[in-house]
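Proteins fold. Shown next:

***
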Amino acid sequence: MMLDLERLRKIWTLVERGGSAGERAAAKDRACAIAGRHGYVLEDIPVLLAGGNVHKAREVRERQQREKETQRQEAEEALAKKAALKAHRQALRDQANEITGRYEGRLFHVMPDEHILVEAVQSYALPGWRAGYDWSSSALEALRSALPLSKTIDDALAELNHWITLRDDRQFVRRAYRQASQDEDVMPEAVLKRMVILADLVQFELPINTIDDLMKRVSFQMDTRKGRQMSEAINLEAILRDLAAVRQTHISETEELKTHIRETEAPEPPDPVQTTCPPKPRHNTATGRRKEIEAILASPDSQKMTLREIASLVGG
């Protein structure tokens, strides 16, 4: 049976111009029922009555619905990003406040050691605002001697990490509060140059003679964020020099231990006064001391001891 468009038109007129809300709702239900028997939906009725193309009108509605859904999702995503950014910035400010609190509000004040370094090279400052320094050999020497220069890998790393931490904290706080002049460094140029000096000490300058220090040096050379980008030849030269020093130390300590063992194994002359006394306990004899040395060398603790320390444990 064909769709009765005239009947549908009359019913739809009640939907659009009916008296009460109840009459309009009832008319809409009747129109939907009539159209539904022919495979149409509520939105198709105005198109049918206008003589339009229902399928094309459906495509337009579906496209509009998709666009509307896309806009809704984009709006939700924008709000979520805005909320996440706000939360992230608040977290940064909270962390910045915690860092500032550790320095009792003096994070960006000139620290005593900073002041010493800046004053040490003040006479080498170039004229003009922010012109920098004339880093001649005498200026670098003044900077090296302004504070006690580290003589061990651990001390050099400790001072360098002190400056790195201070710099990182200042940069973090400045970024967290989105302060101006973010391209400027947060450390005086004298401190930055002192950091280079310390990095050079760790990277290749300081002489070392233990495996532990050598491992620290190699690890530092591999961390390109800390040391300077030196040539591979310079780094290898430092490592070879260190290996030679470690080997020589090991040879010297080994010879000392051998000498000590030979001396303890030498026969002791009899003491006429003690000939009638009971023999000494086994661990006080040469054989006993040698076994004591062997026991120490076989123990896990000996891995952390030098040969000289092992020798001192058995006396002689």
Notes: Residues 106-230 form one domain.
